[in-house]
Amino acid sequence: MNILVVGANGQIGKHLVKLIQENGDQARAMIRKQEQAAYFKDLGAETAIANLEDEIDVIAEAAEGVDAFVFTAGSGPKTGKDKTLMIDLDGAVKTIQAAEKANVKRFIMISSFDTSREAIQAAPESFAPYVVAKHYADEWLLNTDLDYTIIHPGLLTNNPGTNQVTLGANVERGEVPREDIARVIYTSLKNDATIGKRFRAVSGQTPVEEAIQSV
C-alpha cells in the first residue's frame, strides 16, 4: 500500500511514516520545504512538495499513484485564527477534494476529540475556532463518497507509545501518545472494517489491533 501522509513533518506524521516503512508499505511524505526531505528519505519514504495553501491540483499531483490519504496536518497552537481557517478547514477540505480528483477512495482524517456543536459552544474563546474548523472539515468528509475513517484523539502527548488504547464513540477524555495515534491510523488503514467509522482514541489497556476490531 502506498500512503500519502499530509502533515508528514508534524509529530504524528513522522511516527506514521516510520511505522509505514517499518511494516513494508510505502509512505509518501507531503512536505512544504525541500529541506524537510532528508528525514523521510533516510527512512526510505518518498516525498512530495506541496502546501495546503496551494491549489487542489497541486495536492492531487502529489498523490499520483497512491492508495490512501491520511490527513494529520494542523496549524498548531501558536498560530492565529487565519491559519486555523486556512489549514484546519480549507486545507483539509482541499485535501479531500484532491483525493476525489486523484481517484483515491481511502481517506483517514485526524480530527479533534469532540467536534460536536455542543463542543463548539463550550470551547474557550481561543480554542473555539479550531473546533469549528474541525467540525466543518469532518462534515465535508462525511458527505463524500470516500472510504473515510475519522479518528478523534484525546489530549496528545509525546510519551512513548504503549500500543494500549481505548477506542469508541463515547469514551471519556484522556491523554494518548502521538506514537499510539500513528499506530491506530496505520492499523485502521489495514482494516476495511474501519471504513465509514468515526471514533475517539485515548490511552487504555487494549492492544491497538484488538481495539480496532471493536470500533
Automatic annotation (TrEMBL):
The record's section on SUPFAM superfamilies has: NAD(P)-binding Rossmann-fold domains (SSF51735)
Q: Which residues form the NAD(P)-binding domain?
A: 7-191
* CDD domains membership: SDR_a5
Put simply, this protein is called Sugar epimerase YhfK
